[in-house]
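Notebook B, p. 112. Complex prediction, attempt 2.
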Amino acid sequence: MTQPLHIVVCGSIVPDPLQTLEPVSTPAGPGLKNEMMLPAVLDPWAACGLFEAANLAKQVAGSKVYLVSLGPKAKLQQVMMTVAQKFPFELVAVDGPAGGFTEAAQVAEALAGAINAIPGLDKANMLVFGGWASASRAAGATMQMLGEKLGITDQFQGVDECKVQPDGSLRILERIEGGRHQVSICQGPPIVCGWATGNLPEPPNNPQVGMMNMRAIMPALQKAKPAQVAQDGVEWVTVQLPQQRRDTRIVKDVPIEEMAQEIVEWIKK
Amino acid sequence: MHMNDQLDQTADDSLRQSMDVDIACVGFGPAMGGFLTTLARGMSDESAPLESRAMPGMPPQVICYERADDIGFGVSGVVTKARGIRATFPDFDPAQIPLTAPVKKEKVLYLLDPIGASRRPALMKMADAAIKTFKAILPYYEDYAFRLPYIPPFLEKHGGYVMSIGQFNQWVGAQLMGSGMVQIWPGTPVNKALTEDGKVVGIRLADQGVDKQGKPDACFMPGMDIKAALTVIGDGPVGPVGRQLNSELGMPEGHHQREWAVGMKMVVDLPESCTLEPGTVIHTFGYPEPEIFGFMYIYPDRVASLGIFVPSWFDNPVRTTYRYLQHWMQHPALWKHLNGGRLRSWGAKTLQEAGRRGEPLLAGDGYARIGEGSGSTNVLTGSGVDEAWTTGVQLAEGVLEILKAGKPFTRENLEAAYVARRRASWVDEESKVAERARDGFGSGFIQGMIGMALAGFTGGRIAWPGNPLRPHERIPSIEEYYRGRISPQEIEAIRADCKARGAALHDALMEKAGWPAIQLDGQLLVSHQDALLMGGKVQAPAGYADHVAFTHPEICAKCAEQTCVEVCSAQAITARAGGGVPEFDREKCVHCGGCLWNCTKANPQDPEHAVLDFRAGAGGLHSAEN
């Protein structure tokens, strides 16, 4: 029989993906221009892991979802006003920068500390979820380091599916080259999953869930401890955005194949 | 047919959940900010604890639902005296809020037409000629602009602030959520108010997991019913809940909402060469068309908020705000500050400019109205945020009084506790002065300006007479509007060409009328679609129904103007190639609501309204800098 799962999702905030980002130098190191004014969303990669966690928790009775977020408290509060209506979870907030200019090992250290401090966490039945990469910290190394710090050796990256089988084992699909998946069967928790996009749509907002979650989220934000993740030992040599070129053309009723062909021609130019 | 019938998205109520709260609030803007801030403070008073009736043992449960995806989205930059805001925050420090500065300098510029395409009445042409003749000796003339040597006191904002309402809303919202006394949920459109025998008993949220037509689809979840003893409606000028109540419960005798404007603006990183200091306020009139008013407010760190208002009395059936904005920015008196600048943020919204005449029933059994949708915007002083905030504060003071007395939220109790406060305040006193101030614009631009001056200087006792008309009575045909400038044959040829291409008419008609094509620079002069992407970051979540509905498609298919296409701030409503009912793309809509009040076809069942409906919908702008 499957034991209740304790699913810990690590995910923080990133600037809303359509925002115009401009790196600037600040007295505290590199940052983004107007960072505190930029609208933020839950990191889309981690959000996929969170949706999958909620789905798994629904399937395995007695399971619980924790969201461990390292980010500036004020912005976390704002993003939680959107995320908290989706499904029940418990927030563990860690106060610190989330702009991307942090070092993966320091972030992993802070997250491991926060996870280890969760009271009543059943580490034997723990699934640690997060983004395979991140929209701001795209090194793709944080989850692996976090797993190592937590002593979890079964790690999966680029995950699109994680199912609990009747015998309690876990069937996991990881992305590999050529648009295919590698299928792994794991005896059971604890594991680390760095999620790709998963297969689930964003759940609808449920006001009752929101009200229930928010009663615990506000105290969690007030209790958030500061994390030292962008202080010493890291030197940024250069910071730059990818080059971009924008050509806008409005078309109607153009077949997808024709659009794709035009984009190919545009890239070739 | 009641609007309420139209708004029932799904008939299947078996899956619909229900929740009880004490106070349900619709829309988070300045009015709701004032309401919730004052209410939360009152509820935190430990000397007089209040208890929830919906959840006994708990403090009153107060929930606010906001359509936009965040609480600072979809609003605008303003200049405000901030009287009400400072009364709430006596130690208000503008440095605490990004993009806020005290007003330092105010200028009003009359812009001449440097291009020769503007449609100016004869008297204005004579004035322009006189200004140009004597420009060498006129101390107030520069760069095709005449600076008014005197700003009437009713227009002055000295002692106030320029501020981004997006940032202000975020600042207020963060404090409110931090208080733990109220909850604000963005990304949650409210479909309608729940009414029973003329009483409002709560609200129904929009269905999720539906297709464009509102039919159940993947992840279907019917909108939850939120039952509340009091429903507070602050959903703005085009909010569906406020308009539903106007339609269902009626407006007070003689009141109507026929005067509007679309405000479109940009937030711009100014070039290094710009010397305007933070707190500078520039207002303009006269160009690109006489009826179009403009503003430029300078924030700290070389950032400006600027834009134009296209009012309802500007009777151009092809009234494209975006194109006019681009011509306005390039006026020499403004372009000298802007050339080399970069677009940071862009957006548009409707203003309800009927003011006191557009005031609905402010309170009834189980509900109260606050903010712009309640007619609080003052069209004479050009001020709305402070008034909206103050109406929210007044309601909260009344609500606390009612809660403490243990009384029910009846019409009588709300009128005594809220409406009476509003009637006794500066908001109401000044709204009386402004009530007829703009009536003259129905007769012409010059009559309108004279009417404003008369009303302003006589405390509203004298005004230019006029009677605001409904769009179908007011907006002429394209042929009539361009008479003497573009022949009917040329208009027909342009119409046929645009119809075949599924294109709007405005660019072709404006260029035929002499407006030069816009030379895009990719920085500040960008295509309309790039403004959506670069400035507005417009998006819409999946799973919601289309919120713009063509209620009488047979009328829309034959409509010769299709003003909804021409006015659409975001090119979300577009002409159908080959003709027919316009198309709507929810993912581009910025929820300005301009389509609602520009439709030129009367609804056969209710001529006060048109054949386009603007319903509850999710998404829109994703910029908090506006």
